[in-house]
Structure to design on (461 residues):
């Protein structure tokens, strides 16, 4: 954990951002996998981690905005707990680590909420993403489960996002620790990407690295010779020489901060001419977007710049045609890059997405587009120092999408479908880095992971 003052300061700041009422921040409980005693790996709620830091089930916190006090709810361990889990710290020891001294038994949580309801006080809570959380809130607030979604506090959502978006030095260090693990995962995957190997041998090996060096993966590993399937979790293919292997994988540090890196390598370690040509386009888009990062620019602008690189590279290869800017304005390039440039990253790999993607990624100044491709940009906002986010352009040949657009004669003025036909067996390429926005520019986080054609080929020999 960070120092106790880090957590008390965060709670204090949060309290100051709201007008009045109680802020209810429940921690997560254990969740059954296939029966109650066999649970999923426990994952604490990220906002609870941010404000209370305690990585155990069965806790909740309340910040009283009106009297400035905060309260921690939990139960002392029993002899049964000691028998099954060994000696555990007392509640007061745990609470001290979070800088909190008002400790109450868990059942008092319901009483405090009930009292607040009777006094007509506002109870702020965040959107839920697990059934157990919704059921708990419904019970505490005396509401139907279906009503909970609409009752989440927008004032609290915006305030939490304001605080969690800007990472401090300690948080950046944690992310860099997660990046070190990602370095080991990705360089291992590169060296293993040889013909005859089954994808799951590599996926399993690198998941093992994430588990042995940190808290495991920050999201299920995407590793495939079918990179054109954007989130491909199937790991049963045998690697063959003509294909490229996309590995999109990251780890969690011991305080649950994420890394999220994508690299694409030619199976066998040598790029063919066709692979080189497409790879260079994605690399140029990745580099152009990264080099343009500075406070004040919007991520939507970076996304457009990357798309322009993709479109102009494809035009040079004869796959697209016409005016590049016009093609991108109309969204024709989205046939090849039907996703956004990236997302915020922190305690969640898509940071704070559970609070609502539009609250995190957009605001009064930057609105989400409804154009195919650009609409999928999760994060379009103006960049500020302390933001950590991903830059992950990609270029894919998705046969079903190509057939659909071709059949509809869509953007025939910008797409050379005859030539695109001959790339339907190509697959896809994505290159992703994690970036910190600094006061006057940016910092690519972590030890550089091979990215240029030479670097990739050199590590794979
Ligand atoms: N790395 C997976 C994603 O960004 O969605
Ligand atoms: Mn990502």
């Amino acid at each position: 954990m960070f120092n106790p003052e880090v957590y008390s300061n965060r709670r204090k700041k949060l309290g100051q951002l709201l007008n009045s009422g109680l802020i209810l921040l429940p921690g997560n409980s254990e969740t059954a996998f296939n029966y109650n005693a066999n649970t999923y790996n426990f994952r604490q709620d990220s906002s609870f981690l941010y404000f209370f830091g305690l990585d155990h089930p069965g806790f909740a916190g309340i910040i009283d905005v009106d009297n400035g006090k905060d309260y921690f709810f939990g139960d002392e361990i029993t002899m049964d707990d000691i028998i099954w889990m060994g000696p555990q710290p007392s509640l007061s020891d745990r609470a001290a680590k979070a800088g909190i001294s008002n400790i109450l038994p868990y059942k008092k949580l319901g009483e405090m909420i009930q009292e607040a309801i009777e006094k007509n006080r506002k109870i702020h809570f965040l959107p839920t993403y697990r059934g157990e959380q919704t059921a708990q809130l419904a019970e505490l607030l005396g509401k139907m489960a279906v009503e909970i979604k609409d009752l989440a506090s927008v004032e609290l959502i915006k305030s939490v996002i304001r605080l969690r978006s800007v990472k401090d030095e300690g948080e950046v260090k944690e992310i860099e620790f997660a990046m070190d693990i990602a370095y080991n995962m990705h360089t291992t995957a590169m060296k293993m990407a040889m013909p005859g190997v089954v994808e799951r041998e590599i996926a399993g090996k690198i998941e093992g690295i994430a588990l042995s060096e940190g808290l495991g993966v920050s999201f299920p590993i995407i590793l495939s010779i079918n990179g054109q399937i954007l989130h491909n979790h199937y790991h049963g293919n045998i690697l063959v020489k003509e294909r490229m292997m996309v590995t999109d994988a990251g780890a969690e540090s011991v305080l649950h901060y994420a890394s999220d890196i994508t690299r694409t390598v030619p199976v066998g370690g040598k790029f063919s001419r066709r692979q080189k040509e497409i790879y260079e386009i994605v690399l140029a888009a990745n580099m152009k977007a990264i080099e343009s990062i500075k406070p004040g620019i919007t991520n939507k602008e970076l996304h457009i710049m990357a798309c322009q690189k993709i479109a102009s590279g494809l035009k040079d290869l004869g796959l697209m045609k016409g005016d590049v800017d016009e093609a991108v304005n109309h969204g024709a390039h989205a046939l090849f890059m039907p996703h956004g440039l990236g997302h915020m990253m922190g305690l969640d790999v898509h940071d704070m997405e559970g609070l609502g993607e539009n609250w995190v990624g957009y605001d009064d100044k930057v609105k989400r587009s409804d154009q195919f491709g650009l609409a999928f940009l999760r994060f379009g906002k103006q960049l500020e120092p302390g933001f950590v986010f991903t830059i992950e352009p990609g270029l894919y040949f998705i046969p079903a999408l190509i057939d659909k657009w071709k059949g509809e004669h869509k953007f025939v003025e910008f797409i050379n479908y005859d030539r695109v036909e001959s790339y339907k067996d190509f697959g896809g390429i994505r290159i992703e880095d994690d970036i910190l926005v600094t006061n006057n520019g940016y910092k690519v986080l972590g030890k550089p992971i091979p990215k240029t054609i030479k670097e990739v080929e050199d590590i794979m020999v």
About this structure: Residues 260, 343, 390, 392, 432 surround manganese (II) ion (ligand 2) (CB under 6 Å).
